[in-house]
């Protein structure tokens, strides 16, 4: 390509993005059929495929440009002009903010993530402002008057789900009863729902709000399959419960929209505590979620002065973890060498993190954002942190003048490590946390994930009190594990021997041993045995394995039992 044609380069990049979004939208558009047909295998396949689409389109676009450019150079006027031309092409584009991120991805792939400045990249968006709150363009609105059931019936009809219900009249009666107090409190006169239905795993979600003369309330109606057809399973009206449904521990929604910025503006009205980064990721636009996170991170750095420090808790054998106390994330990088008994390598750890990204996290595994060549201001690093990183991961750390560059970095939401939480918890808090810990393990297992290392330090407690797993270097598929009962000793001396009297394969797991390294504290043991004794029985795990092999997918709802109708 002639070096003087930035318009042609810009057009090629935008063509790549448009192709990506068409394919992204096509797979979203298939979600209603998969849901109505209860095609849960298809749901999982589509979820994995959609996550992989983005990188493929970036690679294809880069390949075309590499054929046309002899030696792309960051320092030339070409790329500044290309960005200017690209910005012109984005005027009025319905996914302009996503297209900016795609441009960044192509540029970073071409130049190995170097030269990150706003001359060549959209470090700051060129879009004038966020989409306005415009429910009249996004929603169906129905008058409640004196017959709320009729309004909700219309909403179900507009969602094209009405004919598949087992007993819609009964569902609507229960819904009206559940909402009656709230409807009176806010003097509700209308209900509105977003036109697109949100799909994830085994659920469809109508999302909107109740509008009254004395206020408003978010409203989410999860719809699920029952024995005779569909049913309204719950009514979600609290902001915190809505926030959990859109949690960073959940798989991404599938929702068909050509104007995601306007859709997310509406969601943020319902859940003002959610960041733009979280919401973009929640609907499967996790690459732009990274962009939103980075912009917010830069803004936070400019308005704070604290230093990055080693994260509190027991240091890991595989990952080095640090944090900025004033910011609610942790930064993780893979060490160059792993302490015994760890036997994996960097590539295997990266594969585990990719597995978690594509797998159903069932509300029990933290989502991660992966970055390459992430630059930090050097003066914000505490001396102890910089010394540790250079000692344990010198191949991942580069000192470049006033910057510290981490070549490969994972970023996760910060949580309180479960072991630290338990150290300072009262008995009632211990009981709740241990209950959550056991439920986390069971729900992961039902979703075909065995955590591997189940020590409390590998789990965190969220602000909602949920226990979430976040250390992935030893996870495995349940179906690849061999759960065994410890054989009876042959002789009395066997139990005193330094080595076991039975053979142990690389995938062998003995659940009855879990208690030895988990249940030393009496209060913890008492609570665990009362709630989750079955986790110490190999037969429990074997039964779960059989369910998975039989294709029985877990019914794990992202809301409390008290929300159900």
TrEMBL record:
Function, as annotated: Bifunctional enzyme which can phosphorylate or dephosphorylate isocitrate dehydrogenase (IDH) on a specific serine residue. This is a regulatory mechanism which enables bacteria to bypass the Krebs cycle via the glyoxylate shunt in response to the source of carbon. When bacteria are grown on glucose, IDH is fully active and unphosphorylated, but when grown on acetate or ethanol, the activity of IDH declines drastically concomitant with its phosphorylation.
Organism: Ferrimonas sediminum
Alphabetical UniProt keywords: ATP-binding, Coiled coil, Cytoplasm, Glyoxylate bypass, Hydrolase, Kinase, Nucleotide-binding, Protein phosphatase, Serine/threonine-protein kinase, Transferase, Tricarboxylic acid cycle
Residues the entry annotates as binding ATP: 311-317, 332
Subcellular location: Cytoplasm
Active site: 367
Protein name listed in UniProt: Isocitrate dehydrogenase kinase/phosphatase
Molecular function GO labels: [isocitrate dehydrogenase (NADP+)] kinase activity; AMP binding; ATP binding; phosphoprotein phosphatase activity; protein serine/threonine kinase activity
Chief localization: cytoplasm
Signal peptide: none
GO biological process assignments: glucose metabolic process; glyoxylate cycle; tricarboxylic acid cycle
Assigned protein family: Belongs to the AceK family.
Alphabetical list of Pfam families matching this protein: AceK_kinase, AceK_regulatory
Catalysed reaction equations from the record: L-seryl-[isocitrate dehydrogenase] + ATP = O-phospho-L-seryl-[isocitrate dehydrogenase] + ADP + H(+)
Isocitrate dehydrogenase kinase/phosphatase (AceK) kinase domain segment(s): 306-561
Record EC number: 2.7.11.5, 3.1.3.-
